[in-house]
């Protein structure tokens, strides 16, 4: 009978999880998922697993913006290992990754229910607490963001550690094997996320609330407690020291974020944050409305909020003390809540002071007492059942709705910006997704708003990219230089500044910037591609070929690097390898008109010169280069806007070919990319009215009407009868007057 009851219980928990989180399978990779999983080539090969045991390889730069190779700013090998396993099971699949996260969540819920049953022995209390947690919308961030899986994994291993310790405790401390498992799971929790270190405090709390020393001992309870469990605490002390040495000594890295000095004022500030966070997080659990990936944090530092936070915290402590003897499980769970908040509530400096994922583990510490007090307050069973059903329904539908917010990167930040206008991450990320959607002018406004909140190098860099997309080169250069001034180690800013300098023909200055970029991040293929392009333009083809081959080693699918390589081979009259590079491009993009045209010209030239077509040499086989320690370790940061930064030799860009390439991109809705080809067309022929008209069409699509007006005026100055230019100019002028 008991077995069937358990089967029904776990079936209901599983059903609730499926109902609450099934629609996450429709979601894309968002937030850090793109760089950590979708664009990471390292987690796709099991031969890279030994990297988890190498500090230099684990923290090496990925070549994708400022991200680490395995996406972590600290040593979390268990999480990274889970990404390797994902790739082997389902490949790079958003639906598959979300399904696995839901499975991990289900495993944690099952373990949580089992632990609560062991602690309280009351099936309904344990079941309802686990049920409410299973569908609680506060878990949406930890479940929807694959790159935040560490909170779920850490929770799983802490639960396993507590379950194992419970059995050790009940055995009269005789089953040493159970203690060994307790310590093993504790270390796995720590290597999933640093928060796992609270496991030792939870064990201490468990002993404190569930062990009563015999009155005959004649010792003070606390002293008797320490003596009885000294072997346990010594074991946990050794395990904690072992973890600390590995995490903070062997696998530490140079922190780039400056933390405030530890003064009396800073201590007071952190205490204020901690007390206010307890109140705010409790409110989010009790009333989970307007959940979002970033929060305004002014309330954390508010002395006024303390007027409510301090009494609320005092109430929790009072309940802990009052229920210690009669209801130790209630006291333990409330203590669980407070202990679990210690690493994430402001006592320790965090880049993101408030985040929903921080509540994944503490949440049950509040839910369990809430369920208990509701059960005690409502005597009528049918009223109690109705009450719990209503709560369950509200939580379930709220979670389903919240999952849709995480559907895409745009939906996530478009929702967040409605409720966190004064948060840097919200404004900066929203600007990024606006830029990716082609809404450049709006993106610029939000980049500026983000910079007004916090003057960070990354937003200056992204703002420079936005200006560059609009053709505002001088402003773009200014932003890149500001970004470098704020963060001299910003490799990508050096790279994109070099691109602008190269476009001006300042190749030597550009090469200096690119050498800095490569020195800071030797895994960035764009920097090597741009270096090769600059060297080609200086006719240093041998050096250019070497740089371009390195770009291809780092990114074997780099089309522009192959095109520049073909150009370099062509200019050195190495037609065989030039043909090979072009045929590789065509094998990947059969409709690439530039490559097809170039190849045809090359074949015609070879035919006329009588060069045989057989015995084509092959390019060096691509491989992952030897790893080096990254010089500028960083934590996860706001996503950056990347754009095509290849430098193609001008001699290979005929006017009509460039216009045709731009037209294809326009038809695909890639207006900013089309703009680049049209600008190159203007460089190829500054008297082409057609090229200027095409640029005006791009600016209209990008909602840059003033720039469109300039281009249309230029078009008509070159050709007063150019079709549709006059009508288009009148329409633009009308809209500009309307906007004013």
Based on the model shown, name its key terms.
mainly alpha, 740 residues, single chain
Task: Give a short synopsis of this structure.
With 740 residues, the chain is mostly helical. It has 34 helices and no strands. The chain has three domains: 2-32 and 71-253 and 264-402, no CATH class; 489-649, Serine Threonine Protein Phosphatase 5, Tetratricopeptide repeat (Alpha Horseshoe); 653-739, Tetratricopeptide repeat domain (Serine Threonine Protein Phosphatase 5, Tetratricopeptide repeat).
Question: Secondary-structure map with pairings?
Answer:
Layout: H1 2-21, H2 33-38, H3 55-58, H4 77-90, H5 94-120, H6 123-135, H7 140-144, H8 150-170, H9 176-190, H10 199-210, H11 221-228, H12 230-250, H13 264-286, H14 306-322, H15 328-341, H16 364-377, H17 381-405, H18 409-419, H19 424-436, H20 440-453, H21 457-469, H22 473-486, H23 491-503, H24 507-520, H25 525-537, H26 541-554, H27 559-571, H28 575-588, H29 593-609, H30 655-667, H31 671-684, H32 689-701, H33 705-718, H34 725-739
Descriptive report:
By secondary structure, the chain is an all-alpha fold. The chain has three domains: 353 residues, no CATH class; 161 residues, Tetratricopeptide repeat domain (Serine Threonine Protein Phosphatase 5, Tetratricopeptide repeat, Alpha Horseshoe), CATH 1.25.40; 87 residues, Tetratricopeptide repeat domain (Serine Threonine Protein Phosphatase 5, Tetratricopeptide repeat). It is built from 34 helices and no strands. The longest helix is centred in the N-terminal third of the chain and has 27 residues. The radius of gyration is 30 Å and the shape is elongated. The N and C termini lie far apart (77 Å). About 6% of the residues have low confidence.
